[in-house]
Specification:
5-stranded mixed beta sheet, 328 residues, 10 strands, Nucleotidyltransferase, domain 5, 11 helices, alpha/beta
């Protein structure tokens, strides 16, 4: 009887569940809203997970008791104290198969790394960085708490910096930048003063979805926007440097997996990141993940019952891409 495996990527803005068979063929995909417990609570995590899993099971024509193993990458699961409530939330699925849950950064590492170890740096709505050593017994991590802990840069942090340079231009603390008229147009405000007043008075809100605007302005030659992108790349590189030092990777040849939409913005971001990392770990190799991280969660599920799960990585990546093409 064939075996089937479930993987879930529970994120801050969306949740994906993927089902594949024991050959690495993706056969079901479900999508739902945010599941990070820090924003929607553990009940919200369960709700998002169940909605996406039910879709994936229906597409695959399976019931939950046919799942042989499952893996979960969960945004907001950063500390040991969060493991028990995270597993309780996952329990709403009714799985009887062996499971494991990790921070969602690690499923990106599993999906993107050729050997299942190294460092992964997420930069999307927010940012995070985790790593596994070759034995997968040692973990390195940052806090995952963003600006509060001085960790940047995802789209949220990039937009915060963009607003600061617009404010600095308006108050004459900083240079002129085309970011100002670009964000005035984007928000439909009348001027820089109108934009800043709206933000201060909470009549306007800018979030990570506006990040592409910074890259557009930089591509038009604006020096301030260019510097912001280099700042973001340096910050992401420093997240990786911290994890590299924790795991003592400085002299090793290993992969740094780049996960998230912000890397699509400009080569400048990755170039600045590489410079920061190579100053500490010159043999680090950068890999851009071009498959949804949820495939790494399926691999994690396979690892619960299969000793050769790593051999299915490439066929799983290919079939996941094909399934997405068919659905889109």
């Amino acid at each position: 009887m064939p075996r089937y495996f479930l993987g879930a990527d529970v994120g801050a803005t969306k949740t994906h569940v993927l089902i594949a068979d024991e050959t690495g063929q993706a056969i079901g995909l479900g999508r739902s809203g945010p599941g990070n417990h820090e924003t929607v609570g553990y009940a919200g995590l369960s709700e998002a997970l169940c909605a996406a899993a039910n879709q994936a099971l229906a597409m695959a024509g399976l019931s939950v008791d046919q799942i042989a193993g499952a893996g979960f990458g969960v945004a907001g699961y950063d500390w040991p104290s969060e493991r028990e409530p995270t597993l309780r939330a996952i329990g709403a699925l009714g799985l009887t198969a062996p499971i494991d849950a990790v921070n969602d950064t690690l499923i990106g590492l599993l999906a993107g790394s050729s050997e299942g170890w190294g460092v992964a740096v997420v930069s999307g709505t927010g940012c995070n960085c985790w790593g596994w050593d070759r034995t997968r017994r040692r973990i390195g991590q940052v806090t995952g708490s963003g600006q509060w802990m001085g960790e940047a840069a995802g789209g949220t942090e990039l937009i915060a910096k963009a607003v600061q340079v617009i404010a600095h231009e308006w108050t004459r603390r900083g240079p002129a930048t085309q970011l100002t008229p670009a964000f005035v147009r984007y928000t439909g405000t009348l001027s820089a003063a109108d934009l800043l007043e709206g933000l201060v008075e909470n009549r306007l809100r800018l979030d990570a979805s506006a990040a592409p605007l910074v890259f557009e302005v930089a591509a038009q030659g604006d020096a301030v926007a260019h510097d912001l992108i280099r700042w973001a790349g340096c910050e992401l590189g420093q997240l990786a440097v911290g994890v590299i030092r924790q795991l003592e990777f400085e002299a090793l040849d290993f992969e740094v997996v780049l996960v998230g939409s912000l890397y699509d913005g400009s080569p400048l971001l990755i170039e600045a990141m590489q410079q920061a990392v190579h100053a500490v770990a010159p043999a680090a190799r950068f890999v851009r993940l071009d498959t949804p991280p949820v495939a790494g969660a399926v691999l994690l599920g396979m690892e619960q019952v299969m000793t050769d799960a790593a051999s299915l990585r490439l066929p799983l990546m290919a079939s996941t891409k094909q399934l997405l093409r068919e659905l889109n």
